[in-house]
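I have a small job for you when you get a moment. Would you make up a two-line entry for one protein for me to read? No commentary is needed, just the two lines. Write everything out right here, beneath this request.
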Amino acid sequence: MEINCNHIQYTEFSTGKNEIFDLSCSFSDKKVYGIIGNSGSGKSTLLELIAQEKQPTFGEIEINHNQLFDARTIGYLKQNIENQFITMSVKEELKYLLLSFSYRVNEIDKRMVEVLKLVGLSEKYLDRNIHSLSHGEIKKLGLASVLIYNPKILLLDEPSFGLSLIDKKNLIKLLKKLKNKYHKLIIIVSQDMEFIHKVCDDIYVLNQGKIVLYGNKFDVFSKQKLLKKINVDVPNIISFENLVLQKKNIQIGYRDEINDLIKDVYRYVK
């Protein structure tokens, strides 16, 4: 599975404002991509264009070299997930989605329970009213509604926002499982740099509708001066590693987890 954005441009009709300028990028399966940048840089607009929620003013977006593709190919989790629900109850919402994609009727109940457990919600939630859910539960339900018909591509806009630390850890585990075991192509827009650092492989950095940096996460986050210039934070663990290199001239290597970093520091001190 592959996505190619070829010289796309997007102008918002209602404002006449150019939000994307001659942007080209590509994404392939078995990877988790991060799209980062300051507010108004075009991150969410790019997701909307890939999801066909909006159409580019110029250029084209292809999936497996085709401009037309089945809606089931993409699962899109919007930033304001509350606006994505159609029904009042959890059960009816998930059932509606399965029926929309012609899921086998005799397997609907089983699939609803499976997908709820996948995102950390029990079977009891099927009887809940959506408006009675907490923000974190709504985020999980939104992810369940995206995963329920098993799309090959996942587009996630601020998926970690409002989640507890334990829920973030579980989400990271789930996304890595979806990448490694099921070979999903996952693209995440987020301002949560700690989350992006732990879950993503490659990162695109946007500024004013253009790509200003792309590479694996370690290379991207090593460009602290550029990121600071465009008001993008660097994960704490990366800042510490760079500080040790700068102050002590010790290259301790990049780590995803703080516990691994502490072990490295202990080795050098010892």
User: Anything to note?
Assistant: Residues 235-270 form one domain. The longest strand covers residues 17-28.
